Every structure is written in structure tokens, then in C-alpha cells.
Amino acid sequence: MSPSGADYIRQVKEQISEIDPAEVHGLLDEGVALLDVRETEEWDAGHLPGATHIPRGYLESRVDGAIPDRDQRLIVYCASGTRSALAAKTLSDLGYSDVASMTGGITLWKDRGYEVDQPRKLTAEQRERYSRHFLLPEIGQVGQEKLLDAKVLLLGAGGLGSPTALYLAAAGVGTIGIIDNDVVDLSNLQRQVIHTTDRVGVKKVDSAEESMKAINPDVNVVKYDFRLDASNIMDVIEGYDVIVDGLDNFPTRYLLNDASVRLQIPVVSASILGFDGQLTVFKPYDGPCYRCLYPVPPPAELAPSCGANGVLGVLPGTMGLLQATEVVKLIVGIGEPLVGRLLLYEALGATFTELKVRRDPECPICSREPSEITDAEMGVFPDYEAFCAAAG
Amino acid sequence: MATVRIPPVLRSSTGGAKEVGADGSNVGEVLRSLAEAHPATQTQLFGEGGDLNRYVNVYLNDEDVRVLDGLDTTVEDGDVLVILPAMAGGCR
Description:
- Chain A is α/β, with parallel strands linked by helices.
- Chain A contains 17 helices and 13 strands.
């Protein structure tokens, strides 16, 4: 005779390990993985701190991505301990060697007075919009919430800033600041895809805002319609989580470096010319800073601008999107950011080259404590006056 | 012979070539033989005292020669030297 549902659950519980909430509580910081197998609405009402969420119906299809290590110690829970027992059996069958189901589920956990994380309530529209992120175990709802809470500053709404702004807005970065005092020119449109022909003559910050809002009205766009300089940089950049550098000149790059080291804000930096691009991430005190890589600027004749030398229109797209990718990684905290590495892209040969960038132990800026860097030093570099005079 | 990768700003000095072969048993020799073959690169690479200009980074394979032995770093046949000056452009 076939067993009843209740009999079946009883049989399963005999085959698996169970663990009391008190013991689980003691293991919270011990490297165990907590797996919540309830439905999304239940998860949204509150879950154990640090838990991963896979509804039981998706367990087999998603667990490999979420918990790839079959020997990882795993504690499964649900509302009362029944669904988690069935899930624990499935996980054992899948080869997970150390699985236990928490008795009494989150209901008993809460009765004992243990802490519960209350996730942000995402709207149905947001769930749909970011659904492809939710499916990635590396991002998921937790990562998407980090993106929604993040503040990213884009220096320039030009060639590099255009694709970066569009994709970061699409990805749901909650606050995007843009600093640019230019207006859209017809010659920009060969590469600056955030602007449009009918917006020639419009301020770039306004044009960029319109495009970003059209993609994602969730995004709060903060506009700075002026040039970044020593008098305003600290006020502008403070409070941002990541800065995206698409600057077009050396003095401001040095200034940005010094201020971002002082405030310990990572800078995702790219530069382009002709068919060539460079990309790296300057994460203060974790890796080198801009001055470690380039202690002094080249003379003006060795540093032509795109305005003078031209640039392939799609190149800032390639480099800008590599920047956007690094920004997402930094915010969500996944992967290996391009810290201490410089990526060179040469479009005609379709080659990528990676070079190591070391911290300079004698770097005039990042070898010192942030508090020791004074206003007077920021943005100063050897031959600054001569450089600016030569550059006109 | 080593291969030297030429950055965009120096390509006008190498007749447009992105890569140039150059002989030498160390970094200094390779760069000097590059400068002999393409004299316009001389002042861009080297200062008056014969040292590498500080604004030019040179990598042997993927490592900055300054953390190796500088211009004295040994170069093997088939090694790749990358010359890398800072680029200004973000393109407004």
C-alpha cells in the first residue's frame, strides 16, 4: 500500500539529520550555509540572517549555482520543518554530504527570540524588471538591493560616460550622479549614445538624465552642471560608493586621484584614443593609485586628445561597458575587480593585454594616511604650471 | 629578438607600426636599438641623462621593469616589451 503524505514525511525525517534552532544560532558565524526553501512571499516577510533563498520547487535547478560545493555544511529551513526535511532528502540524493533540516523552521526560530532579516519590499514591477539579475546566484535579490542602494558618480556624460550611464541605470543603480558642463554637439553623436540628434544644444546632464529616466524611472539622477576642480571636488564626490572616471585631461585626473584616495572611494578609470583603450580600477589602499601608475604626466605632445586625434566611435562603448561591469562587481562584491591590473584593448588587432600595476611604496599620496593628505597638495604634480601652459 | 609594442602616440615615430622587433640582451639595449631604428622615439623614451623618462612605463611581458631591474632587466628571445605612456582621453 502506498504511504500517506504524513507517513512519507515521517519516513523522510528518519532518513535525514535534524538540527535545533539553538544549535543553528550558535553556528551562524561558523561558515555554515543556510538555505531557505520557502516561497518568495514568505522569504520577503523575513528570513535568517545571511541565508540563501531557493524556493523548494526550484531546488534541483538552482542549487548547483547557489551552493556549488557538495561538501559545504548546509542547514535547510522552511516555516515549520517539513518542506526543509523533504529538501534535505533531495539535497542528500544530489550528493550534498553534510545537510541538516532545522526543526520547527523559522517559526520556532522566532519564538526563541533569534534575529530575522527583513528584506526590502520590492515592487512587482521591480521584480519583473530585475528578474534576470535575480536568477544569477552571484547577484540575486541581495545583490540587486545593493545596486538599488548604491551611489555612483560619473565624471563626464561623453563617450565613456554614455554607455556607462545607460547600463548602470538599466541595472538599477539607485543614485547616479553626473558631472559635465558641456552641451550636446552634433560631433558627439558618433559615439555618445546617451544623447540624440534632437537634443543637440541641450546640456549634457539634462540630455543624459532624460535617456536614463526613460530606461529606468527608479534611478535618482543627480546633475552637476559645472567642471570638477579643486574648490568643489571634495563636496561633489563625498558620499559616493564608486566613481567612474571618463575624464579628458591630466590635471583633473590627478586631482580626482588625490581626493578619492583621501575619501577612500574606488575609481573605475578608462581612457581611449584612436583605436586603443586602457582600463583599471584604483581601489585606495587595496591596490595602486593613479600616481603609482603614472607618477608624472607626459608632455603635451605625447598626450593628444581625442578632439585632436580622433577616436573610433564604438571604442568608448567597449571601454565604457567594461567600466560599468567593474562598477557592478564592486557594488555587489563579486568576482575579481581589475585592481592592480591594467587592461589594454587594441581594436584593430582585436587584442587584450593585461599588465600588472604595483603600489608604489613611495607614492606621494597613497603611501600616507588619508588624513595626512592636505587640501594644498591635492591635484599638484611636478611641472603642473608648465604642463598646463604647454597644453594651452 | 624581442617584440616591442608601440603605443598609439609613438606610432607616428615607427611609421605606423604597432609592433617592432628589436635586438638586445636587456631592456635598455632593446629600447636603444628601437631608438636607433626609429630615431624619433629617442627623446620620447629617454631623458638627457639616458634614463627612461618617468612618464613612460615599460613592461616586460606583464611586469613593470621598474620592479624588476629597470633598464638592466634581462630580455630573452621572444619576450614582449610594452611601452605605455599615460593617455589623456575620455573624449568629450
